[in-house]
Amino acid sequence: VPPSSGPPARGPVPPLPVLGSLPWLGGGLPPHLLFSQLAHRYGSLFALYLGPHYTVVVNDHQHAREVLLQRGRHFAGRPSMVTTDLLTRGGKDIAFSDYSPLWKSLRRLVHNSFTLFGEGTGRLQDIVLSSVDSLCAELLSGGGRGFDPAAAVTRAVTNVVCTLVFSATYRHGDAELQEVMRYNDGIVQTIAGGGLVDIYPWMKVFPNKCLRKLKDCIIVRDRLLSRKLEEHKASLSDGDPRDLLDALLKGKTNGGQKSSESEDETITDNHVLMTAAEAFGAGVETTSTTLLWILVYLLHHPEVQERVQKELDEQVGSERPVCMSDRGRLPYLDCVINEGMRIRPVSPVLIPHTAMTDSSIGGHAVRRGTRVLVNMWAIHHDPEHWDRPDLFDPDRFLDRGQRVSPSCFLPFGAGPRVCIGESLARLELFLFLSSLLQRMSFTLPDGAPPPNLQGRLGVVLQPLPYKVVVTPRAGWEGGAK
Ligand code: HEM
Question: Could you say which residues bind heme here (predicted)?
Answer without folding.
Answer: 419
